[in-house]
Structures are given as C-alpha cells and as structure tokens.
Amino acid sequence: MAQGVFGEVLGSTVGAVFGGMSTLAYPDNIGLLRVTKVGSRYVTFATGVILLVLGGLGPFDRLLQAVPLPVLAAAGTILGQPLIIGTVLLVVLKLAFGLTRAGREARDPAPPR
C-alpha cells in the first residue's frame, strides 16, 4: 500500500514538473481492475503506451471527442459500482456484526501461530 501511495505522489510530482495532470487512483480505475481481474503492471504499461501513441493521432482524438457525455457517465457508473458495493458491504459487516470480510471479529487480534 505504501509503495502505491509513493508511486502516486511521485507520478503527480513528475507530471506537475512537465505541466501535466496529476495521477490518482480513481474509483473507475479500481473498478476496472476488479471487473477484469487484470492487475499486471506490464498490461498497464502496454495500455499506456498504446494510448500515448493513439493520442497523437488526429482521427483517434476526434473519435474520443465524439463520444457523448452520457455514455462516458454510464461507463464511469458501471466501473465504479464494484468499489461502492464492496465498501458498503464492508461497512455493513463491521457495523452490524463487528466482522471483517474474513469473518473474524474486527476487534480480536489475529490467532497465534
């Protein structure tokens, strides 16, 4: 977790130095990770390279600009749902039963080894 936060801060700093936008772990991205079950950094890197190359092409830019805003909002809603549902489930389990997802008491320490 700490390495992920450090990576986000470092990416945001480098982006700001070059006049770019900050990089954050948006809920849509986390939802996409949960839906596809693909969390490989190599896949993420390859996708980033493809998007950088396509971003320099005028026809691809016009295609992205032609997508209506309601379609983008619907895609964001669908990709954000797994994160929201997982969070609500976790809160309900903790409040109602004092349990975590593992089924143990949230207040009890881990069993000795």
Structure description:
- The chain has 113 residues and is mainly α.
- The protein has one domain (2-97).
- 69% of the residues lie in helices and 0% in strands.
- The chain has five helices and no strands.
SSE order and pairing:
Blueprint: H1 2-17, H2 27-36, H3 41-55, H4 58-65, H5 69-97
Helix pairs in contact: 2-5
Transmembrane segments: 42-60, 72-97
Family: Belongs to the nucleobase:cation symporter-2 (NCS2) (TC 2.A.40) family.
Protein name: Solute carrier family 23 protein
In short:
This protein has 113 residues and is an all-alpha fold. 69% of the residues lie in helices and 0% in strands. The protein contains five helices and no strands.
Please, what is the oligomeric state?
Answer: single chain
How do the SSEs run, as a string of H and E? HHHHH
Biggest pleated-sheet summary:
none
Strand content: under 5%
Average of the residue pLDDT scores: 75
Number of strands: 0
The number of domains is 1
Keywords:
113 residues, mainly alpha, 69% helix, 0% strand
